[in-house]
Amino acid sequence: MNVVSLTAALVLATAFSASGQTPMASTPTSLSQLLAEAGANNPQISAADHGARAARQVAPQMTTLPDPKLTYQQLSVGSPKPFAGYTNSDFAYIGVGASQELPYPGKLQARGAVAERDADTKVAEVEVTKTNIADSVKADYLQLAYLQQTLGILRQNEAVLDQLIQDATAHYQVGQGMQQDVLQAQMNRTKIVKEITMHHQQMGQIQAHLKGLLNRDQGSPDIATEDLVETPLNRSSDELLAMVKQNNPQIQVDASSIRKQDAQLASAKREGKPDFEVGYIYQNTDRKYRDYYMFTFDVRFPRKTRVNAEIAEATEKRSESQQTLNAHLQQQLAEVKGGYVKATSDAELLKEYREGLIPQSDAAYRATLNAYAFNREQFIHVLSYFTDLLSLRLEYAQTLVDHEAALAHLESLTGATLR
């Protein structure tokens, strides 16, 4: 057995133990940069923003008086021909007038209040869209960081395994090992190559989705992430739960919807009041006859059945909005609680990996590797410890990304800055 080659393998093992990541060709981009880019360029956010601006233009339409009407009249006498009898009858005339509808005082203001509350809801929905996009960007970024980090681990382990295969082959050629050892090592290398291929496939899919969220061209350079590091959770469960009512964007939408329904109910009650219309007409009957002057005043009485139905509808919708708020609040509180439990348990598990499982597995692997170098241990045991150590490092990386993803989602639910 070549002790020098085994030492090289041990050095490689130390390398992936220390870093676990292959340097990226491009400069890493921070998550905060991508979040700012998504906020500025994402088309869904832009569409929601334009919708909110359009909703702001509804209130002026609702609070403006109905359009005035201009009236032209021509009355013929003795014949259907235009102007017949105009010069010889005091009944024929040409009339010009105008009229204006006048809703009952307070009706227009009530309708405008409904439109304003609806616009407020649209603005709150913009924040929901922004939060959802930000949540998707965070999820993609963290998953991409995980894949890039574990890809480095897999590549470095592939290099270590290549060295072990060479040593096992040399050992077998001099009659100190079995061909089965070489085949087993080659099978493990094939598994790593398969994992690397799958990593590339997943990274390509996430890159495409992330570029779509950022509104980047799909042919643009791929995004390189910063290294994943554990972020401590410095907020208590009670603090996070209290933030939901104040900062959660969906709760804000539901609360705004309730205010809109309150305004709608007040407007429906106001609709039961009568509306008015005033008009004035001047009628000219030629110079030799006296002119006519007509003032009109109309009153429209809303039917009680329709008005009561509108009030009942608004009342039910108000109750619906309240129950929707209650349901969403319970859902968000449950997600926050679940996210908190996930983050704290993952933090404990990460500590166990760092301080117990990985160091112990690494020590066992090194000891077995040294023993194998002096023909005091079987190669299958070296390969077994190597595989265990690789699995633990990959599990640690998965737990780390799960922990960071839980914190990122908690940020979306509470509006707090946790990472």
From TrEMBL:
State a single Pfam family of this protein.
Answer: OEP
Entry superkingdom: Bacteria
Q: What stretch or stretches form a coiled coil here?
A: 304-331
Q: Which GO terms describe its cellular component?
A: cell outer membrane; efflux pump complex
Annotated signal sequence is 1-20
InterPro entries (UniProt xref): OMP_efflux, TolC-like
From the Swiss-Prot or TrEMBL record, state where the protein is found.
Cell outer membrane
Q: State the UniProt keywords alphabetically.
A: Cell outer membrane, Coiled coil, Membrane, Signal, Transmembrane, Transmembrane beta strand, Transport
- Chief subcellular site? membrane
A molecular function (GO) term:
efflux transmembrane transporter activity
Q: Output the PANTHER family linked to this UniProt entry.
A: OUTER MEMBRANE PROTEIN TOLC (PTHR30026:SF20)
Per the record, the similarity remark reads: Belongs to the outer membrane factor (OMF) (TC 1.B.17) family.
Q: What is this protein called?
A: Outer membrane protein TolC
